[in-house]
Amino acid sequence: xxxxxxxxxxxxxxxLDQLFESAPDRWDRFYAxxxxxxxxxxxxxxxxxxxxxxxxxxxxxxxxxxxxxPGRNALYxxxxxxxxxxxxxxxxxxxxxxxxxDEAGASIRFHQGDAFRLPELTGPYDLVYDSGCFHHxxxxxxxxxxxxxxxxxxxxxxxxLTCFVTEECTDRPDLDYYRTPALDGGLGYSPAELRAIFTGxxxxxxxxxxxxxxxxxxxxVPFLWxxxxxxx
Length: 232
Hints:
Elements (H helix, E strand, L loop, with lengths): L8 H9 L5 H8 L16 H8 L7 E5 L5 H8 L3 E6 L2 H14 L3 E5 L12 E7 L10 H11 E12 L11 H4 L11 H7 L4 E7 L15 E7 L2
Parallel strand pairs: 1-2, 1-4, 2-3, 4-5
Antiparallel strand pairs: 5-7, 6-7
């Protein structure tokens, strides 16, 4: 490779990726201790996802769990009758998710790698669900995220999202992440920013996640937005 290899948008995105810590290594360290008291480690689905199914806002079909972690939402979707593909960058997360699926007897197709590059994630999907992937992306990778959702989501399908609330994070302008390349544990968003980013989709619901006690079979923490959008 030479010194001047940027010729396409993807070349530029790859170049900007190099400013930030390697995501697979970072997340493998995160998942190394499974006994830590991390809400997202519990084998239970997001309360809003359960509500979407129980209220009939989404119907069983093909689903993509984007950034599936240890598989808690993928397992719930499979139990609710969805045909599920689940993807994560971290080999440690996928190993844990596969173990949980085997224990539950769930049929889920797991994919380890970069969802923006994996050729097998062609869809079409009736549901794309992202619980915690979007807010860990550097700003330039929103382009890739939007392109993926637009490419694989069927007309009339739904995109579900949970992401950090602005005041729960270091609220920095996008440019600052390139002046000091660190994601500070994740990016926070406001409802107005989410609506502007996903302007090509129709908002169904956007609210804070409901806080739930530890003994509830659903996960609910108040520092996340939950959003459901429909693809016109």
